[in-house]
Design goal:
Membrane topology: Single-pass membrane protein
Number of helices: 3
Shape: elongated
GO biological process, one term: protein secretion
Subcellular location: Membrane
Structural class: mainly beta
Largest sheet: 36 strands, mixed
Strand content: over 45%
GO cellular component, one term: TAM protein secretion complex
Keywords: Membrane, Transmembrane, Transmembrane helix
Number of strands: 36
Length: 602
């Protein structure tokens, strides 16, 4: 019995000592300083502070708190804390005040965590053992510096909140980020039996943009949530998002509406054209259907609505698909389908158009029965295009294009266009790894301009080469007419020569065109030392220029850079006829520039 009594006395004494130590650490300033000193010795890093006042039981103030270690670098300029330990006996944790100033969080890079096996998410039913009351929580100037990426800054945070049964009661939340502010209040459900009723308002003032502001509400429970939002500035817009079973088998629907508003209302750099938008969408976590209608007063749209509908889906958040998508504008229809794999970095895009017209109401250009297929990735892809084209300035053309490309450029393996009763073929390469460069070859045969321009019947054949590049906004290009032959307006036609352009100027190299007995020759460039030499010998103008008669001969030279151009030469006209104008004969010798005539003009 004595032994048991001795053990009991020793245990009671140790418990009393432990309680006294805890009371000393909690209720006295010396206990607080001793506890901090012990903590500094135990943590794996360097823990320092400039000053400490108060006690753990509150109030407590710490200045210049710093920790540096393998976990990162963390700093706190000032902490003020006060709470009510006595409330614990009533089943409540009451924080009267928590003020943090000058917080800097810079965590060290964390090792990559192994991927967990996918499991069905079950929402937690939060049942707190204590009622929590947070009456005055303030954070001033918090900076989070991630191991990678840009730093994040929190300018101000104020929180007054508490828990009650199945809800978090948010009396006031005031959050300020650089250029962005948010205020919120209401109830948030912490369990399936709780109800959420939260109101919020936000503002944004960002560089080069007008002030923005909006407000909204979140209401419902874990089975159904409704989010409504109203954009208040710089223009009115409305959004409604409904979520069914948001934490289990999510089903959602979205309605967005924007009344007619000038685009530059949202950003001064945008055009002044007005835009009205209605968007409806619905789906789940794996797929979505959408439908949108856009109206604009842009002159090119000619008051025609633009409509879009389709379906998007994904598989495991790595494979994405676009299906049954269609874009409609007046009589134009564009159908879209495609898929993309993030893991393989490859995909496929298919465009089909039964008919495309532009502008939509009074078309000047049309494309019919066309398709485009792009397949591959950035490192290697293929492109196939075919369509029938027509327009006011474009003769009816059946176009086919095939090629392969990569990150450095595109190899045009085949371009074939059937037009004007003949055929045009091209191949070559276009590069974009260092600026833009190209090397192309083009061949045409059996071309009859008269099919589109009745005054110019004929049958033409030509071979053309073009090469060049554009770097640092400087264009260098060469176009060579290797051969031109055939007949035009019943007369033989031939030609050859080249045209070059570079940052120093442009020039022709022995370019000569002949049709019947008529001849045009160009050589050189006005900015070149030798200038641009030209020769005209048209003994039969009517053969080359419908509506004109007579003969024209001349030669001369053009020199200088704009606007200091100077032209010299001589022209002779005989039996000229143009509409009601007739001229038996005229001769002109000239030496003139844009700054006036300084030489003979006879």
């Amino acid at each position: 019995m004595r032994a048991l009594r001795l053990v009991g006395l020793v245990s009671a004494g140790l418990l009393a000592v432990l309680i006294l130590v805890l009371l000393w650490l909690t209720l006295t300033a010396s206990g607080l300083r001793t506890g901090l000193a012990l903590t500094a010795r135990l943590v794996p890093g360097e823990l320092r502070w400039d000053g400490v006042d108060g006690r753990l039981a509150g109030p407590l103030a710490i200045r210049g708190l710093r920790f540096t270690g393998e976990a990162g670098d963390y700093r706190l300029e000032r902490l003020d804390f006060d709470w009510s330990p006595a409330a614990l006996s009533r089943g409540a944790l009451i924080v009267e005040r928590l003020h943090l100033e000058g917080v800097r969080l810079a965590p060290a890079p964390a090792p990559a965590a192994p991927a967990d096996a996918a499991t069905e998410f079950q929402p937690p039913d939060i049942r707190l053992p204590l009622r929590i009351v947070l009456r005055d929580i303030r954070v001033e100037s918090l900076e989070f510096i991630p191991p990678e990426g840009q730093p994040l800054t929190l300018e101000h945070l104020y929180l007054d909140a508490g828990t009650e049964t199945h809800q978090l009661q948010l009396q006031q939340l005031d959050l300020a980020l650089p250029g962005i502010g948010l205020q919120a209040s209401g109830d948030i459900a912490l369990a399936a039996a709780g109800e959420t009723q939260l109101a919020f308002h936000w503002q944004a003032e960002l560089p080069d943009l007008p002030p923005y502001a909006g407000a909204g509400e979140l209401s419902g429970n874990w089975n159904a949530l409704l989010l409504t939002h109203r954009l208040e500035r710089p223009a009115a817009a409305a959004l409604e998002l409904r979520l069914q079973q948001p934490l289990a088998a999510l089903q959602w629907s979205l309605d967005l509406s924007l009344p007619e508003t000038a685009l530059n209302t949202f950003a001064p750099a945008l055009p002044p054209d007005s835009l009205a938008l209605v968007l409806q969408a619905e789906g789940d976590l794996n797929q979505a259907r959408f439908e949108a209608r856009l109206n604009s007063d842009h002159p090119q749209l000619q008051d025609q609505p633009l409509e879009l509908q389709g379906r998007a889906s994904h598989d495991g958040w790595t494979d994405y698909r676009l299906e049954d998508a269609e874009l409609r504008l007046a009589d134009s229809r564009l159908q879209l389908a495609g898929h993309w794999s993030l893991d393989a970095a490859r995909g496929r895009l298919e465009l089909d158009w039964p008919a495309l017209h532009w502008p939509p109401a009074n078309p000047a250009f049309s494309a019919r029965a066309g398709s485009l297929v792009w397949e591959g990735g950035v490192e290697a892809f293929s492109l196939n295009l075919q369509s029938a084209l027509a327009g006011e300035a474009l003769p009816e053309t059946q176009l086919e294009l095939q090629g392969r490309g990569d990150a450095a450029g595109f190899d045009l393996t085949r371009l074939q266009a059937g037009l004007l009763g003949g055929e045009l073929q091209a191949d070559g390469r276009i590069g974009w790894s260092d600026g833009l460069d190209w090397q192309l070859q083009l061949a045409a045969q059996g071309i009859d301009p008269g099919r589109h321009w009745p005054d110019w019947p004929g049958e033409l054949a030509a071979r053309i080469e073009s090469s060049g590049d554009m770097r640092n906004e400087a264009l260098t290009a060469q176009v060579t007419l290797q051969t031109l032959d055939g007949r035009l307006r019943g007369l033989p036609i031939s030609g050859g020569g080249s045209f070059d352009t570079a940052p120093g100027g442009w020039r022709f190299a022995n370019l000569e065109l002949r049709t019947g007995d008529n001849r045009l020759a160009l050589h050189g460039g006005p900015g070149m030392p030798e200038g641009l030499d030209w020769q005209l010998d048209f003994p039969d103008l009517a053969a080359s220029l419908p509506g004109m008669n007579g003969a024209l001969q001349g030669q001369g030279r053009l020199r200088g850079d704009w606007p200091q151009l100077r032209a010299t030469g001589a022209i002779e006209v005989q039996e000229l006829g143009l509409a009601q104008l007739t001229l038996a004969r005229a001769m002109l010798d000239f030496d003139a520039g844009l700054d006036g005539v300084t030489g003979p003009l006879t």
